[in-house]
Amino acid sequence: CVLRRSEAASMNVEHLRRVAGHTVLMLPEAKGGANQSVKVPKHVVDALQGMMSHYGIESGAIWRSLSRNGTWGRRLSGAAIYKIVNSHARRAGILGTVGAHTL
Question: Model pTM?
Answer without folding.
Answer: 0.79
